Amino acid sequence: METTPKVRLDILIEQLAASRLEEILTALDGVSGYTVLPVQGGSGLDGLWTRDGQVGHMSGMVMVWCIIDRQQKDAVLEAVFSFVDRFAGIVTVSDIEVVRGERF
Q: Using one digit for the tens of pLDDT, what is the confidence trace for 49-78?
């Protein structure tokens, strides 16, 4: 089966900032779409945390990921990280292979 090389960005960010991040991604050339998933909990520099007991839907973390062309990586990463850097969160970049590359 034929695959196409792409780049995947995983962006963990505070729920409160997610809608603005989505606006940024939508406006960028090279980003044809993204997916947002709720994060239930984890462990990091500040120790264990969980979504349990939080009041409201804006006080958690979400994972936003998108698949882009390798040529767009630097421009998209610069725009995304300049925003994410102001919030609790992380950005990871992975080289991937996709089936049906024309969809991305």
A: 665 655 455 568 899 999 999 999 999 999
Domain range 4-98, its CATH number among 3.90.550.10, 3.40.50.300, 3.30.70.120, 3.40.390.30: 3.30.70.120
Specify the 3-state DSSP secondary structure of 98: strand
Tell me how far CA of residue 104 lies from CA of 13, 71, 81, in angstroms.
23, 13, 21
Closest CA to 59 of 103, 17, 102, 3: 17
What sign does the CA torsion over 24, 29, 30, 34 have? Answer: positive
Element (H, E) at 39: strand 35-39
Q: Is the distance from CB of 80 to CB of 15 less than 8 angstroms?
A: no
For residue 37, name the pLDDT band (cuts at 50, 70, 90).
very high
